[in-house]
Design a protein that fits this description.
The chain has 23 helices and 13 strands. The protein is α/β, with parallel strands linked by helices. The protein has a domain of 219 residues: MetI-like fold, CATH 1.10.3720.10. Strands 6-7-8-3-9-10-12-11-13 form a 9-stranded mixed beta sheet. Strands 2-1-4-5 form a 4-stranded antiparallel beta sheet. The chain is elongated and about 115 Å long. The N terminus and C terminus are likely disordered. The protein binds adenosine-5'-triphosphate (ATP). This is Peptide ABC transporter permease. It is found in: Cell membrane; Membrane.
Length: 660
């Protein structure tokens, strides 16, 4: 309720209820007309022709002696029936058509959008006249005629709503949990598409009632003797001067319904009491503020990808405690000159129970490198290389999987926590509904109460106080840290062997950040789960990582055990990252060392070392030849030949296990 409403003294909800009263009356009278009407609306009594209102006939009689009140009440019934049928058809056709167009996009969307545009631009009354002219009057034809022009605005609204949601991260999160298109459309797209359509429908009631009355008035609607309001108007028109009770009541009834419907629609569309009205018509789970689009780059859908070098790696994968082994991974996106690689020849592996941190500046390819194996990049991404996962008892090659194959892995063997928790969660659903769905998708659910018990256990596991209460909250009602914990609970629903956390703490303050990192470390210890944690902050990952891979311009430039990387880094870029980390005990006013130059170039943008232009120890040769990752010690590799001493070339740029 806003201040303006308060000032006028009537609460907004009450004002909306008052505005809706004529519509409510219309619906009640329409439904109960046979009970409320004192007489048969079609029974003639010529002896009682054109009687004025009296105790016997409260609204008088018409020229055939029929009770006018009974005809008015039955007229409401017919208007209500036609309006309800038209709305049901228009809403169903419009919302389904618009949702399909918005979800599929591409040529289907273009064709459906043109059809919608045409339907909207046609003059509705002319279409109705043409249809009734061909098919003749009658309730059925009237419904068809009005529906033909009434469905298009619903389709347009639903299409716009769904198209806006199509690329949102919470849909990606759902796909990750194994939800198929049917479930995504039915449970996550149709409800938000329906909500604005219902608001529009409240305005449409008036337009339909008026349209039906107009057609009847023109002799093309409900044929006599059935008492439709437009029909009553035309019958009363010749007697306007002598028998006012014939035309005025139906005229007032039509005006009241049209006004009420327009006012209510306007209030719902602009007012802040929208949720209170939708509470009458929408189930509880659908009431929440409109979803907010994330400014963050959304990791989107899976698509089959090209692959190479698969057999060579699967032959060596597994059996040695390695959960995920990535080899020669390259990712490219369409570019004006063809395709541009953003990640090149990336190799890493994650042993069971270990935490690998991938660090680097923005645009260095961290997120791309860790999400590519799981098909979580933009559909235009082309992924080449190999990624083998020891999922359960099977070894699976991840690159090139189809979406159904991926659903067997993502959400079950692999859980993902996204950076922007608000965007990754559906704003229309409670936290409990999110986790319930994840629990059910991974096959751990049962009856409603059983599923909810698992949900509450998961919320407790991630350290959320009062799991029962939190389960009932919507995402926007939680703090950023709590939402990240909720995302973690969703990711843990499938009891994954690997958790991928993409900048899980970047939007949080340092205290909450530390708590979340401690939680991740505790979960690793308690559940024995391996993790890949992406961060641009080397200091953050030192709290929990076992190994660190440093990326620059789409390539790994140094990788090794945490202690080596922190205490004895050899690549100038890693040193630069460490120098930029604030250290306890640093004297106030001390300036941190920063790296000159710009980040974010691609792996193929330079002939030689991409870091050379910013490197304090670069020599002219550095800019001429692409450096290769060299093994310096077991598990420690660097791509700076100037610092590598007695290094040896790592065959295929593959990493070695620490201690191997
Ligand atoms: N859909 C896309 N189309 C084209 N280029 C993309 C797309 N997504 C990412 N990129 C490019 O890929 C490169 C690597 O992006 P990525 O998100 O992996 O970097 P990052 O190191 O994770 O950065 P950040 O920390 O900012 O998330 C960037 O140059 C980015 O512009």
């Amino acid at each position: 309720m806003n201040a303006g409403h308060r000032r006028r003294g009537i609460p907004a909800r009450l004002r909306s209820t008052l505005v809706a009263l004529p519509l409510l009356g219309f619906a009640i009278v329409g439904l109960l007309a046979p009970v409320l009407a004192p007489a048969d609306p079609t029974a003639n009594d010529l002896a009682a022709s054109l009687l004025p209102p009296s105790a016997e006939h409260l609204l008088g009689t018409d020229q055939l002696g029929r009770d006018q009140l009974s005809r008015l009440l039955h007229g409401a019934r017919i208007s209500l029936a036609v309006t309800a049928a038209v709305l049901a058809i228009s809403l169903t056709v419009g919302v389904v058509t618009g949702t399909i167009a918005g979800y599929l996009g591409g040529p289907v969307d273009r064709v459906i959008s043109r059809v919608i545009d045409m339907a909207v631009s046609l003059p509705g009354m002319l279409v109705a006249l043409a249809v009734i002219g061909v098919r003749g009057p009658g309730i059925e034809n009237l419904v068809i005629a009005v529906s033909l022009w009434a469905w298009a605005p619903y389709a347009r609204i639903a299409r716009a709503r769904v198209a806006g949601l199509r690329g949102s991260p919470h849909l990606d999160a759902l796909r990750l949990l194994g939800a198929g298109p049917g479930r995504i459309i039915g449970r996550h797209l149709l409800p938000p598409a329906l909500a604005p359509c219902l608001v529009y429908a409240s305005t449409d009631v008036g337009a339909i009632v008026l349209g039906v009355a107009t057609l009847s008035f023109l002799g093309l609607g409900i044929p006599p003797p059935d008492p439709e309001w437009g029909q009553l108007l035309i019958e009363g028109r010749p007697h306007l001067a002598s028998a006012w009770w014939l035309a005025y009541p139906p005229g007032i009834a039509i005006t009241a319904v049209v006004f009420a419907s327009n006012l209510l629609g306007e209030r719902l569309a602009t007012g802040d009491e929208r949720p209170s009205i939708l509470r009458w018509v929408l189930p509880a789970g659908l009431r929440a503020p409109a979803p907010r689009r994330s400014p963050a780059r959304p990791p989107t859908t899976v698509r089959p990808t090209a692959t190479s070098a698969t057999s060579a790696t699967s032959a060596t994968s597994g059996g040695d405690g390695t959960l995920l082994r990535v080899r020669d991974l390259s990712v490219s996106y369409p570019h004006r000159d063809g395709r541009r690689r953003v990640v090149a020849d990336v190799c890493y592996e994650v042993p069971r129970g270990h935490i690998l941190a991938v660090v680097g500046e923005t645009g260095s390819g961290k997120t791309t490198s860790v999400l590519a194996p799981f098909g979580l990049l933009d559909p235009t991404a082309l992924v080449i290389g190999s990624a083998t996962l020891e999922a359960g008892t099977h070894r699976r090659q991840l690159v090139g999987l189809t979406p159904p194959q991926r659903r067997q892995i993502n959400g079950r063997h692999v859980g993902v926590v996204f950076q922007d928790s608000l965007a990754a969660l559906n704003p229309l659903r409670t936290i409990g509904a999110h986790v319930d769905e994840a629990v059910r998708n991974t096959g751990r659910g049962g009856r409603r109460a059983t599923t909810r018990r698992v949900t509450e256990e998961l919320l407790r596991l991630v350290g959320l106080p009062d799991p029962v209460g939190i389960a009932r909250e919507f995402p926007h009602q939680l703090s950023g840290g709590m939402r990240q914990r909720a995302q973690l609970a969703i990711a843990l629903a499938g009891e994954p062997e690997l958790l991928v956390a993409d900048e899980p703490t970047s939007a949080l303050d340092v205290t909450v950040q530390a708590q979340l990192l401690d939680l991740l470390a505790r979960l690793r210890d308690e559940l024995g789960m391996a993790m890949i944690v992406v961060s641009h902050d080397l200091a953050v990952v030192t709290r929990l990582a076992d190994t660190v891979a440093v990326m620059y311009a789409g390539r790994i430039v140094e990788a090794g055990p945490l202690t080596t990387m922190v205490e004895n880094p050899v690549h100038p870029y890693t040193r630069g990252l460490l120098d930029a980390v604030p250290r306890p005990g640093t004297a106030p006013g001390t300036r941190f060392r920063t790296m000159p130059g710009r980040s974010g170039t691609g792996p193929d943008d330079a002939d030689g070392c991409a870091f050379a232009p910013r490197c304090p120890i670069a020599v002219p040769e550095c800019a001429q030849e692409q450096p290769t990752l060299l093994a310096l010690a077991p598990g420690h590799r660097s791509a700076c030949p100037r610092q590598s001493g007695n290094a040896t070339l790592v065959v295929g740029a593959a990493p070695e296990r620490d201690g191997a």
